[in-house]
Amino acid sequence: MTFSTPCAFTATPRTTPHLLHHNCPPNIRLEEPLYQFTTSSSEFDKDYSKFQGDDDEDANARSQFGTKSYWDAMYEGMGDFDADEYSWYYGFEVVKPYLLDYTANDDAVVSNKKQDKSTISILIPGCGNDPMLIDLYNAGYHRLTAFDYKYLPSGSNYVDTVELSVEDARALPKEWEQSFDVIIEKGALDAIYLSGDGNFEQSVKEFSRCLKSGGVCMSFSGVVPEEVRRDGFDGKKWKWLRDGSEDLKAGCFVFRKI
């Protein structure tokens, strides 16, 4: 069984940025997102059992949001959200200022020049049907890799420079080791945490392995307990650049690999 992240990617090419949530510069708290994972949502009262396959790991999940069957149902149009395009927590306009603020390399800072965004390699775990890949590409970030736990539609390869694949966040490809400058995840680690014990920790280890030394992981999260996050993003291996604990509902956490 291959379980990594919550959803499957469907590309819907657009030419303008997709703003679903509040625009917020890095120096203030994030506003309330449009939607959040919760362990007390009425979503859990719904019966998704008919979509349950032979995925035994669903039995270990802490909630419906941690099960493969829930997300399969969601992206088959059985959920409350758009099955074709949906941005979890925040849209690109919220992510963008953090990306600009935390990804400038030392050479760019010293020379006071803008870094060539097309040279920044970015990994998007749990890409789902989030349109952020399109927004990133339109913003000049062309070295993009994204993955999810289930098949990706053949029509989703809208640009040659975006690599899409089906992967397990707990065991990413060996060839990805030290390949990426930035990882951006929005709710993927939340769903992974909810899927069962040890999955969050193992996925963070894989993220670290795939990041270059000094690479940045941006995590938009509203579920992972503080103590679990601090154990996973251990201060001996990660430098905490931004603690999103005080953000409303879903926080923006930024870590640099040491």
UniProtKB/TrEMBL annotation:
GO molecular function: methyltransferase activity
Keywords: Methyltransferase, Transferase
Gene3D superfamilies from the UniProt entry: Vaccinia Virus protein VP39 (3.40.50.150)
GO biological process, one term: methylation
Domain Methyltransferase type: 126-218
One Pfam assignment: Methyltransf_11
Top-rank taxon: Eukaryota
UniProt family annotation: Belongs to the methyltransferase superfamily.
Protein name: Methyltransferase type 11 domain-containing protein
Native organism: Skeletonema marinoi
